[in-house]
Design a protein that fits this description.
The chain is an alpha+beta fold. The chain is 25% helix and 24% strand. Helix 3 packs parallel to helix 4 (87-99) and helix 6 crosses helix 7.
């Protein structure tokens, strides 16, 4: 396994800056909507405009800093897990890490406990927590924080990225995979934080919880991924260790037996009391809508420990966000190759702007020459198995010829307009009766999908040369654009 060039999030920010992937925002910025709006527009602009943003002048919070957009593009993820900046290489690296977990190492002292705020002095409103969306119900402290719980039977630690909203000075909500009725059977929730809470509640016991804010990016990625936390001891920590190529250092909490990342910027410790719920939201989510959730848990804060001059890390949830969902293109191509149609694939693209960020849309440039070739692709898509944030069976698939630039919407739509007769080249297929196993993710099970055959070369009368720039010439011209004074 490769080793990364950072120890913690602060080191990682330095690595980003050295590579031109971090900007210091020194102009004054409001926490209410403005900081979130700046982060969102940075994601929208993409390209070289998409860099990490370290906000250093937050109105009303002198000396406190917030960072965003530090795990949002291929080049950043490559630095985070020690791989070349290529999506296919990153996909392979993540797969290798899943197969080779590295157990964490417990330490007795940690920088995340340099300074401690006792329960009586806790005020969550003292923290620089953005009001991310204009339509949010409040300030969300849990967006990239590792929500840490323990399985009461095995003692295994689980971390998840769950949304948490500040309720008052000393409490915040915790929405762990939806709302949960009092008395809900924990065995029906799968594994994870919500299962641990319900297991304790069934015995009338409170659940210790810790929020690890400002973790290093390997930990942040691992906390959002699907790993077997019920089968592997401290699974997210072991996965992150494999991504970094070295054990993650963890430390015991001040108020419980929970183990948290030692190099976090801040740890918020608390507990969830049994039989207590609240309705939470709305909050802007990654599907692009505001959602409210009934019956979420309430965390009562017991203490806050943090590094000196702690940096808060958070993200604005939306279609494009600060988490590597851009891996769907590489994941889909790899899975299709494994299914035996690699000979037909020129390129695969899941565009973010159409829901590619959660695998809804796919465009496949295919070396198809006959209708039978297109049928092979359709069959593979219909039977595609899924894996959270890496492979998703698309609801919409467009197949084009291998000379099409799948990243150019205008060119793709031209081929759809001319090459597709809806009654002949558009079909809806049902998902086959496949048995799904973890870590396969079925939360956004599409059911049926639309398949569009926009190829020319497989259809009589359409197999004619296209008067478009070749890829080589297009790249050469684009490479000189600034030199020509046209940028």
């Amino acid at each position: 396994m490769a080793h990364v060039d950072y120890k913690d999030m602060r080191d990682y920010l330095g690595v980003l800056e050295e590579n031109g992937l971090l900007k210091h925002v020194t102009a004054p910025v409001d926490l209410d909507y403005e900081l979130g709006g700046i982060a969102a527009r940075g994601l929208d602009k993409g390209g070289n405009s998409l860099v990490g943003l370290l906000f250093e002048n937050i109105n009303g919070y002198p000396g406190k800093r917030v960072v965003a957009n530090i795990l949002a593009k291929t080049e950043q993820l490559a630095l985070a897990i020690g791989a070349e900046p290529d999506d296919m290489t990153l996909y392979e690296r993540i797969g290798e890490a899943r197969q080779s977990p590295i157990a964490p190492v417990q330490v007795s002292e940690a920088v995340c406990q340099e300074e401690v705020i006792a329960e009586e002095d806790v005020n969550l409103h003292d923290l620089p927590i953005p009001w991310w969306h204009e339509g949010d119900a409040g300030r969300y402290i849990g967006t990239t924080a590792g929500v840490t719980t323990m399985d009461p039977e095995t003692g295994y630690i689980n971390q998840g990225l769950y949304r948490c909203m500040i309720l008052d000075d000393k409490t915040f909500s915790l929405q762990a995979r939806g709302g949960h009725e009092i008395g809900e059977n924990p065995t029906k929730t799968g594994y994870g934080g919500q299962s641990h809470i319900l297991m304790n509640e069934a015995q009338g016991k409170p659940t210790p919880v810790a929020l690890a804010i400002g973790m290093d990016p390997a930990l942040t990625y691992a906390a959002g991924a699907f790993v077997h936390s019920d089968e592997i001891e401290h699974a997210e920590y072991a996965f992150a260790g494999a991504l970094k190529g070295e054990p993650i250092e963890i430390v015991k909490c001040l108020n419980s037996d929970l183990l948290v990342p030692a190099y976090s910027e801040m740890i918020i410790e608390g507990e969830i009391l049994p039989y207590e719920r609240i309705n939470e939201g709305p909050h802007g989510e990654h599907q692009g809508f505001y959602t409210a959730v009934d019956n979420v848990f309430i965390v009562h804060v017991k203490s806050i420990s943090h590094r000196t001059d702690a940096i808060h890390y958070g993200l604005i949830c939306r279609q494009q966000e600060d988490y590597p969902k851009f891996m769907y293109s590489a994941g889909m191509r790899t899975r299709l190759e494994q299914m035996g149609i690699g000979d037909l694939l020129e390129d695969v693209w899941c565009p973010d702007s159409t829901g590619g960020g959660f695998g809804v849309f796919a465009i496949i440039a295919a070396k198809a020459r006959t209708p039978a070739d297109v049928a092979r692709i359709k069959d593979a898509i219909t039977n595609l198995k899924e894996e959270r944030y890496l492979v998703r069976r698309p609801r919409w698939t467009i197949v084009v010829d291998d000379d099409c630039d799948v990243r150019d919407w205008a060119e793709v739509m031209w081929r759809v307009a001319l090459g597709v007769m809806p009654d002949a080249h558009l079909s809806i297929s049902e998902r086959n009766n496949v048995i799904w196993h973890e870590p396969l993710e079925v939360e956004f099970d599409a059911g049926s999908c639309v398949f569009v055959d926009a190829t020319f070369k497989t259809k009589r009368g359409f197999d004619r040369p296209i008067n478009a720039l070749s890829r080589d010439l297009k790249a050469r011209v684009d490479g000189r654009w600034r030199e020509l004074g046209l940028d």
